[in-house]
Amino acid sequence: MSSPPATPEPEQRTRRERATTAFRNAGPRRLVLYATLLAIVAFYLAPLEAAIMTAIKTNSAFNTTLPFAPPIELFPPSLEGFTLEAWRVAINKLSHGILNSLMLAVPATILSATLGSFAAYGVTNVEWKYQMPIIALFIAGIFIPYQAVLVPLSRLFAIVDTQSLLAPLWGLPLMHAHYSNIINLIIAHTAYGIPITFLLFRSYYRNLSEEMLEAARLDGASVFSIYRNIVLPLSKPMFAVTLIYQFTQVWNDLLFALVILPGGAGAGEPVTVALTNLSGGIIQSFGLQMAGAFVAAIPTLIVYIAFGEQFAKGVAS
Amino acid sequence: MANLTLDGVTKWFDDDGDRIVAVDDVHVDIEDGEFLVLVGPSGCGKSTTLRMIAGLETVSQGDVRLGDRVINDQPPTVRDIAMVFQSYALYPHMTVQENMSFGLEESTGLSDDTIARRVEETAEMMGIDDLLDRKPGELSGGQQQRVALGRAIVRDPDVFLMDEPLSNLDAKLRSQMRTELQRLQEDLGVTTVYVTHDQTEAMTMGDRIAILNDGKLQQVATPIEAYHRPANLFVAGFIGEPSMNFFEMEREGDVLVGDDFEYSLTAETLDEIGDTERVTLGIRPEDVELVSGGEGAHEFRTVVDVVEPMGNENNVYLRFDAGGDDPQMTGDERTFVATVGGLQSIEDGQEVAARIPESAIHLFDTETGLALRNRTLDLSEAPVPNR
Amino acid sequence: MANLTLDGVTKWFDDDGDRIVAVDDVHVDIEDGEFLVLVGPSGCGKSTTLRMIAGLETVSQGDVRLGDRVINDQPPTVRDIAMVFQSYALYPHMTVQENMSFGLEESTGLSDDTIARRVEETAEMMGIDDLLDRKPGELSGGQQQRVALGRAIVRDPDVFLMDEPLSNLDAKLRSQMRTELQRLQEDLGVTTVYVTHDQTEAMTMGDRIAILNDGKLQQVATPIEAYHRPANLFVAGFIGEPSMNFFEMEREGDVLVGDDFEYSLTAETLDEIGDTERVTLGIRPEDVELVSGGEGAHEFRTVVDVVEPMGNENNVYLRFDAGGDDPQMTGDERTFVATVGGLQSIEDGQEVAARIPESAIHLFDTETGLALRNRTLDLSEAPVPNR
Amino acid sequence: MQGIRELLKKGRRGSSRERKLRADGGEPVETHREAEQSLLRSEFVQSLPFWLPPFLLMGFFVYGAIGWNLVISFTDFASLTLPTYDPATFDLEMYRQAINDPNFWTAARNTVVLLVAFTALCLVVGLVLAILVDREIRFENTFRTIYLLPMSLSFVVTAKVWAWMYNFESGMINVTLRQVGLGSLAHHWISDPGTKLAAVIFALIWQFSGYAMVVYLAGLRAIPDAHYEAARVDGASSWRMYRRVIIPQLRSSTMGAAVVLMVFALKAFDFLYVMFGTNPGPAADILATMMFREAFASNHWAYGSAIAIILFLMALTIVGPYLYSEYRRGEL
Amino acid sequence: LGGGGDDGGNNGGGNKVEVQHWWTGGDGNAAITALFEGFEEKHDIKIKSNPVSGGAGQNLKNVIKKRVLNNKPPSTWQAWPGKNLQPYVEADKLEDIGDSVWSKNGMKGAYLKGPKQAAKPDGKFVTVPLNIHRLNNLFYNVDVVEKAGVDPKSISKPSDLVGAMKTVESETDAVGMAHQTKSGWSTLQLWAQVLLGEHGEQTYTAFTEGKVKANEQAVKNSLSIVKQYNKHFNGDAGSLDWQQANKKLINGKAAFIHQGDWAAGMYRAQDGFEFDKQWGMVPYPGTKGMYSLVMDSFPFPTNNPTEETTKKFLRYVGSVDAQERFNPKKGSIPPRTDVSKDKFGPFLSRQMDQFQNSKSQPPSIAHGLATSPETLTALDDAATSFNSSWNVNKTYNKFVQAFESN
Ligand SMILES: Nc1ncnc2c1ncn2[C@@H]1O[C@H](COP(=O)(O)OP(=O)(O)OP(=O)(O)O)[C@@H](O)[C@H]1O
Ligand SMILES: Nc1ncnc2c1ncn2[C@@H]1O[C@H](COP(=O)(O)OP(=O)(O)OP(=O)(O)O)[C@@H](O)[C@H]1O
Ligand SMILES: [Mg+2]
Ligand SMILES: [Mg+2]
């Protein structure tokens, strides 16, 4: 006995365009659409493009060329207006900040993502009473204006002197006393990062199949083992999103650094602070400002361009 | 392995202070090795019952016993029960091999070798040994279903619980897996509780079926018994497709009087009714006979409303020939169904006589719904021409 | 209102340069007021065909005609066609009233009063007039379905298109809505194209059914014709549940020789086969007769593999009695099904003789799948006892 | 045969009420309740190591700090003398001072303007972008990434870039205007108090409209194709389809995006700080900058804390109802 | 806790003097580096230089306040003296160094009254001024004023400057005055000079003492003069900082600029832009004979992490050697009157002469020497809004309030 072969379920593509067939058929309207999209691209990129151009211009080229024009003379061809001096100076002045930012952002990001994942699992995938208030407190933490904690925060790190507490550490090779400032920042960023990482992980964990987790319980796995063997491996994509998001947040922060750092060079200032201070010299150069801005932005730009897709997904959730 | 007993098991949920009773005082005794099917309409508490057995839901009242142990308070982890979920609930990041090993690793102290061997044996038995290195995402629905089963089987549990395991498969595959599953359970002889709301699965798969409605157990019986000897109106209406025809009647002496017709009863039947006044008469569509005459006992003149040809048989919707009825206004409530062989040609509007043989009728107390009398059965007929 | 014609309609999709032909040269003529059901397995192009008629998909080749107009290039907006979607596609933020008015407001210049009146009338007809102020989220599945229908009806279109409108309902509700829909269409007399992959709907609802497979039209016929006179193997296997039993045979003289049995043919039948060598013999489960003897013509000794009691009938899975077969290893491919009355008691392992009457067999060319001979039919039988 | 159907229906309808009645009658057996408790407890206990440490850390820094901040706002902590945490000296003096401080009201007004204008415009731009991108265009990901790109930048960076963009003489906006012969429109964008706040809002929209786009895009994608098609078949034009069928369905996307955008707006401090220093002037001063200025530049710690608390309450009035509605919808 | 900070963990570098300042670039950096070198040579003690840049010193001020509040001050730091230090004194955070520092090196004799006054905001010496910038300057581009036929030396009152600027603008392409209105302080200091020049030192002092209402006419008048100046400011004043404004003078796009004499540092750095040839400076009209003070100084905090070495450092700061190393590079003049002029260029030498011969040294309002920080903030605020509104009455009212709130 034979039966007709079972056709596999076709992959149903959702095609919005079906609903707007007119657009597909009418070439001109399609062109208008793309033209609009490109114009918007210009709007979003123009400031960045012009800033880059400014950053590679000599002062005189800056005064004589249009902001968004490259510093290249066509008649006669010359690169006279081109210079990387601003970049050299910017990198020189910001390199310690970049280093500090890395030392700060990487651990803070990993810590807050991990803790966020822990917490989200603990209140989402394990059933117990009264978890709602806890969840609400976690989530409300996202929306707290940081101004509301600044004064206590600065008082706190004045009272809790990590530098003295960790004094033995500074004697070790490669350690500096001012790392205590970075440690303070790591703690703060971790704590304030938890709510958002919690939310990201929670929305992800809520959508994990309940039945799958129950299956694991029936398979004899403990709460810990379920996390370790099922939830954690499945969280990889969400960790990517969270890490990207949190990294940019920490990297870009200025406020906490202003408040928590005691201030002063070598005190572990992250790159945003260093960039703010870039204008300290007498000669104000837009080229230097823009070059500095880009030097400081490069890591997050790279992260975005490389992982924009996941990021968009995470942001949307 | 052991027999599983639900002893007055009740489950209520808190809903903002209100109590929602999902399962209400259910008693079932499931024999060692028995295949019990739990059926009922959506929301009747099937899944909840199953989940209480598994330990995924606490028992509000009553006992769940495995053998002599009350297992109410045991966490699922230690119950030695395996469950197959509707969604299969395979671990998507693990290979089939890992999916199947996971339970053994977590719940037993077996060596890796032993586990690997057992997984391999089971996979072979299930015909999925060549899929062991794939991940669930790379499997078809049927294959996933088989892996889910394999994952349960490999643990060699005391009890299998299955919650609509076939409902995600397409019709053809479902009927194939149905037979396979049934055969497998017979071979393994593991006590099994199987939840479904699919008629066919309920009727064909179980040793016995337990029919739930609104959290209350309606009947536990073999499929045939449930079909032919329903305990009450609900079971009678729920089991069978098309449903049994019901007519609400008043008893007047030895005659039942309904809106459309009168039905005389023999003394024997009258005895069974006792002194119930309002009874519901039920007759299965295949027991309604279409005859040419129309003047015999228990024969009624009817008009064909709609014919649904099903190929092998036709469902004929009949209307009592009250004469002069506006045909357009004929609501659903006035028709009843007869199933006739697919080759008989019957057309809309045709007048036919329907015979409702007394031997085939069911009678229910309209108030309580309880069965007063079920059809007479003679199951001794030998294999004979089937139509 | 007008008749709808698909004239060599073809649709291909671009898939990274490759052409995927979803609908392939389909010709159907749908009469004014006819109810045509489009069936076929998943992915066969049913929805695509419907969407081309609606104008939601461009036609790659061929014409769609409404009356005499070719409507290929008309946007959906002006086609005067109403569609009921599988998901109902009710606008969740509008009340039922607004949902139903929307189409009239957008496509006609009717005054608000007129629209309100028409909506009310339709709602009354559909029995949803007390739901008018609710939003779709507050309706049950069946109510939503009714609203979706009402939304289509209120527009009084030339053609109704319905894409699996019942598939989201549960079994009981589905069978109820089926009859209701059918009756409604008869009353309104609007040309309707109805897509489904549900057997029962296809058989019971349509005036005619069009069976599609892999984008190609297999047969357009009345349900009964398609059941009893399938044009090819695909239709024969697709229509009917349980499926027709197929046996691949070689012709040797006037005898068909298969793996398990031989089947002699009368001259008349041989004529119909012509000189085809490899034929597939088909027999519907309900045409397989179980007899006590076993030595008559076209009778074969078999063993009962599994019995599936369905209540009103039993599906009996039979295995040819080749003797000594390991019962565990009996794959699905070796069994065939017979449907017998529900009251006959037959048990697993029992030996029975199966008769395959020559009048009931279908023969197909194994290579092309085309029907060589369909069963003889005598539809003239008057209403007689049905079993 | 209607009987059974009716029965089924009745059963379904009546069931919940009946159940309640019954359930109220039955007395739960004590042991079971205990069992339930112990089971819960074990799950609960096992979940503790996961959520408690992060919760304590977060709770201390977020809620602990807010509480502390509140306490400080009751003191008269200022300048270089540490506060005395003596409840007897607590008063609402700082709040009174705020109410009487015209700067506070300017800042509050600017904060509201910034919140509302920025959020609303961002949503509009984001919606338009989302609709444009959601048209099965080629290179959709590229477009989307570009539109979202500014969001990756620090406020410090965008403030630097826009400070230059807005420069009267060499800034790109004025240069471009002059280049196309609209020199008369060239303007002191960020020094003229009339345009200062608008310029800030514009730059912030540039930075964050991509976010609104992404949220709306997800919202649009969540609307079944069938709704577009049904609207088409119903005879609606594209414009009407979006206006009447699609956009009304984006309410929850709008809510979600709006709340997050407001949070961004509250954090716009960095932007203003880099662009204008601690004192952006009355035209662009917002509570966030005012708080920072008062606390960290003028050392009016208590006063700054009071402003912070007011800002926090403002945020709460936005977020509170949102969270509650999410909770009601079971989305928390 | 008080002891906790003393454990020496604070600077991690043992006995190094930690000096915080905001001279992170250009002249300032060169100057302070020279000073540090001098100290290290002399005492063989390492300096831990810990600069905080940005915000025109505001950032450093915030840092210091935070550290002092937390009882973890640096050894010493760059601070504007005068009333700026009042909060520290009030909170008892600065120590009297009248004996330990000021009595040495003949400091008390070598400093003029003005600077000494500024070093003891509360009557006790708490800080050591290192340098002096003059505030009452009017710089001009020689070419431009000559082309316009204006003689800056002949302008005797601030109000007369308006006419001069008109002439400049009618005769040349240059604007009358380069100015920045992006932040408030430039306008505040400009207005202060106008007040000083137009209404005399007494009124100026009365204002700093809070007697605003008593001088309503003077205040309003000086404000309206600045408002008149506004018509002659460069058009992009609102988006510049002072360096960019100053460049306009260098480029000949403006005739005048009012700034502290730090502005001359830019001229010095510009090739071919020489004092008295391309640029010139006169005391701000009406302020001849006065030397309006802006100073940097180094205070001595209580709870000092390196008490003795800090004192050594402060003594050094008050020494001729230190001031001779520092000031020529910085473009400022030494507060000590006994420093040789050899190392100072013609401009600074002239300034030193004028300083030493000045009748009075009024402290700068805009730099916090004359009023409490609170008042300064309020005045700054007022100037910031004046920058956009140019509303004399409103600004006057704010000036009044600036003193009232304290
Ligand atoms: N966690 C819960 N909280 C409150 N009520 C619940 C909960 N789980 C189930 N219920 C209710 O209990 C009843 C029984 O639910 P159950 O899932 O057991 O039904 P079911 O028979 O499995 O239905 P289905 O066939 O739809 O799966 C339903 O009315 C349901 O709404
Ligand atoms: N937009 C598309 N692009 C490419 N291929 C498509 C597209 N839409 C449909 N197809 C393909 O066309 C074929 C027919 O699809 P269609 O949706 O018409 O099937 P169907 O018969 O309605 O199936 P189902 O019963 O699953 O709804 C399928 O193979 C499908 O993959
Ligand atoms: Mg269920
Ligand atoms: Mg389809």
From TrEMBL, chain A:
<keyword id="KW-0812">Transmembrane</keyword>
<comment type="similarity">
    <text>Belongs to the binding-protein-dependent transport system permease family.</text>
</comment>
<dbReference type="GO" id="GO:0005886">
    <property type="term" value="C:plasma membrane"/>
</dbReference>
<keyword id="KW-1133">Transmembrane helix</keyword>
<keyword id="KW-0813">Transport</keyword>
<dbReference type="GO" id="GO:0055085">
    <property type="term" value="P:transmembrane transport"/>
</dbReference>
<feature type="transmembrane region" description="Helical">
    <location>
        <begin position="135"/>
        <end position="159"/>
    </location>
</feature>
<feature type="domain" description="ABC transmembrane type-1">
    <location>
        <begin position="98"/>
        <end position="307"/>
    </location>
</feature>
<protein>
    <submittedName>
        <fullName>Carbohydrate ABC transporter permease</fullName>
    </submittedName>
</protein>
<keyword id="KW-0472">Membrane</keyword>
<feature type="transmembrane region" description="Helical">
    <location>
        <begin position="102"/>
        <end position="123"/>
    </location>
</feature>
<feature type="transmembrane region" description="Helical">
    <location>
        <begin position="179"/>
        <end position="205"/>
    </location>
</feature>
<dbReference type="InterPro" id="IPR000515">
    <property type="entry name" value="MetI-like"/>
</dbReference>
<dbReference type="InterPro" id="IPR035906">
    <property type="entry name" value="MetI-like_sf"/>
</dbReference>
<dbReference type="Pfam" id="PF00528">
    <property type="entry name" value="BPD_transp_1"/>
</dbReference>
Automatic annotation (TrEMBL), chains B, C:
<dbReference type="InterPro" id="IPR015855">
    <property type="entry name" value="ABC_transpr_MalK-like"/>
</dbReference>
<dbReference type="InterPro" id="IPR040582">
    <property type="entry name" value="OB_MalK-like"/>
</dbReference>
<dbReference type="InterPro" id="IPR047641">
    <property type="entry name" value="ABC_transpr_MalK/UgpC-like"/>
</dbReference>
<dbReference type="GO" id="GO:0016887">
    <property type="term" value="F:ATP hydrolysis activity"/>
</dbReference>
<keyword id="KW-0067">ATP-binding</keyword>
<dbReference type="Pfam" id="PF17912">
    <property type="entry name" value="OB_MalK"/>
</dbReference>
<comment type="function">
    <text>Part of the ABC transporter complex XacGHIJK involved in the uptake of xylose and arabinose. Responsible for energy coupling to the transport system.</text>
</comment>
<keyword id="KW-0813">Transport</keyword>
<dbReference type="InterPro" id="IPR012340">
    <property type="entry name" value="NA-bd_OB-fold"/>
</dbReference>
<dbReference type="GO" id="GO:0008643">
    <property type="term" value="P:carbohydrate transport"/>
</dbReference>
<dbReference type="GO" id="GO:0005524">
    <property type="term" value="F:ATP binding"/>
</dbReference>
<keyword id="KW-1278">Translocase</keyword>
<dbReference type="InterPro" id="IPR017871">
    <property type="entry name" value="ABC_transporter-like_CS"/>
</dbReference>
<dbReference type="GO" id="GO:0140359">
    <property type="term" value="F:ABC-type transporter activity"/>
</dbReference>
<keyword id="KW-0547">Nucleotide-binding</keyword>
TrEMBL record, chain D:
<keyword id="KW-0813">Transport</keyword>
<feature type="transmembrane region" description="Helical">
    <location>
        <begin position="112"/>
        <end position="133"/>
    </location>
</feature>
<feature type="domain" description="ABC transmembrane type-1">
    <location>
        <begin position="108"/>
        <end position="324"/>
    </location>
</feature>
<dbReference type="GO" id="GO:0005886">
    <property type="term" value="C:plasma membrane"/>
</dbReference>
<keyword id="KW-1133">Transmembrane helix</keyword>
<dbReference type="InterPro" id="IPR051393">
    <property type="entry name" value="ABC_transporter_permease"/>
</dbReference>
<feature type="compositionally biased region" description="Basic and acidic residues">
    <location>
        <begin position="15"/>
        <end position="32"/>
    </location>
</feature>
<feature type="transmembrane region" description="Helical">
    <location>
        <begin position="50"/>
        <end position="72"/>
    </location>
</feature>
<feature type="transmembrane region" description="Helical">
    <location>
        <begin position="145"/>
        <end position="165"/>
    </location>
</feature>
<feature type="region of interest" description="Disordered">
    <location>
        <begin position="1"/>
        <end position="32"/>
    </location>
</feature>
<keyword id="KW-1003">Cell membrane</keyword>
<dbReference type="InterPro" id="IPR035906">
    <property type="entry name" value="MetI-like_sf"/>
</dbReference>
<keyword id="KW-0812">Transmembrane</keyword>
<dbReference type="Pfam" id="PF00528">
    <property type="entry name" value="BPD_transp_1"/>
</dbReference>
<dbReference type="GO" id="GO:0055085">
    <property type="term" value="P:transmembrane transport"/>
</dbReference>
